[in-house]
Amino acid sequence: MTDGTENMDADEPTAGEVEREPGPSDSLRTFGAVVQALREHAGYSRVEFGEKVRFSKYTVESVELGRRMADESFVELAEAATGNTGALRKSAKFLTRGGAGLAAWFRRWARLEKMAVSLCTYECRLVPGLLQSEGYARAVFEGTIPVVTDDQLETLLAVRLERQTMLYERPTVPFSFIVEEHVFRRRFGDTEQMRTMLDHVLEHSAPRNVTLQVVPLDGGLHACLDGPVQLLETPERRRLAYSEGQQNGRLIADAKEVSLLYQRYDRLRSQALNPKDSRGLLERIRGEL
Q1: Which residues are CB-contacts of 181 (< 8 A; sequence separation ≥ 6)?
Q2: Residue-wise burial string across 225-257, b where 16 or more C-beta atoms lie within 10 A, e elsewhere
Q3: What is the DSSP string of 148-200?
Q4: How many CB atoms lie within 10 A of CB 14?
Q5: Distance in angstroms (rounded) separating the CA atoms of residues 283 and 289
Q6: Are 209 and 173 in contact (CB under 8 A)?
Q7: Torsion sign, CA atoms 41, 96, 155, 22
Q8: What pLDDT sits at residue 101?
Q9: CA dist., res. 80 & res. 76, Å (int)
Q10: In 3D, which of 262, 164, 175, 177 has the Cα closest to residue 214?
């Protein structure tokens, strides 16, 4: 009997496979062209249209260029703004996401995330991707070396924000985050952007299936000092782990190694602040800005 271990590396990237995935799908490009044509026929600029659909001009641009999947509210409000022709509502049913914007070494883990029955994340570098505000994520990608083009940046941003919908679309899946306090204190942008980031984290960690714990600055040494790690459990109750570093990532399937990482994460849970005190700390950091 096999548990699939021998196939775990079947689609792992090769040594040179560190590029981003291909660009947007044809369906996204086609839908975006239709949105742009209808917007221009209605006489709206992207700024004006953004006000109609309650999104920024940048989001409108991303949809029109096929870099971002239009959500249901965008489609419905865009329909109303362009005369209720039904073209957008009907064509939106055939959109495919295309999988653009993921690092080669993260692709397998991203697929596993979508079917996981639980997901745990420890971060000591950045706000976890699933909790990042748009402004924070944009700043992260703008600082990427090598520098990405504007189109690539928008694609990366769209994929990151789309991943965050898991927190709401899968309300029975427990998501656990443990993050170092200094991550939330690291400055980026201006004060308002910092406040927006903290508000975003507080909002996205509020659902009952999401738990956020902060490791305080005075918490001392702890069990996960080897670096960030993600852990998940599959519908078949198999546990897997993922560890990432500079220009690489590793999906860990070895049962003994995964068990060790789960033990470290469980120990860190007891060393971090509880969820209530963690939220209080974030609120205090916001108040200090």
Answers
A1: 214, 215, 216, 217, 219, 281, 285
A2: eeebbbbbbeeeeebbbbbbeeeebebbbeeee
A3: PPHHHHHHHHHHHHHHTTHHHH-TTS-EEEEEEHHHHHS--S-HHHHHHHHHH
A4: 7
A5: 10
A6: yes
A7: negative
A8: 55
A9: 6
A10: 177
Structure token pair of residue 228: 């960030």
Question: Taking the CB of residue 221, how many other CB atoms lie within 10 A of it?
Answer: 6
Exposed / middle / buried, residue 86 (Cβ in 10 Å: 0-12, 13-18, 19+)? exposed
Q: Enter the tokens of residue 223.
A: 């069990």
The separation between the first and the last C-alpha atoms of the chain, rounded to the nearest angstrom, is 57
Q: What are phi and psi of 237, to 5 degrees?
A: 70, 30
Alpha-carbon distance of 148 to 142, in angstroms, equals 7
How far, in Å, CA of 74 to CA of 162, rounded? 14
- How far is the CA of 178 from the CAs of 8, 43, 256, 269, 287, in angstroms? 27, 48, 22, 7, 21
Q: Nearest CA to 69 among 154, 130, 192?
A: 154
Positions in the chain short of pLDDT 50: 1-23, 99
pTM score, whole prediction: 0.66
pLDDT tens digits for range 185-201: 999 989 999 999 999 99
CA distance 261 to 228: 11
Task: Give the model's pLDDT for residue 111.
Answer: 82
Instruction: Write the CA distances from 187 to 165, 172, 217, 279, integer angstroms.
Output: 26, 34, 16, 19
Say how many residues make up the chain.
289
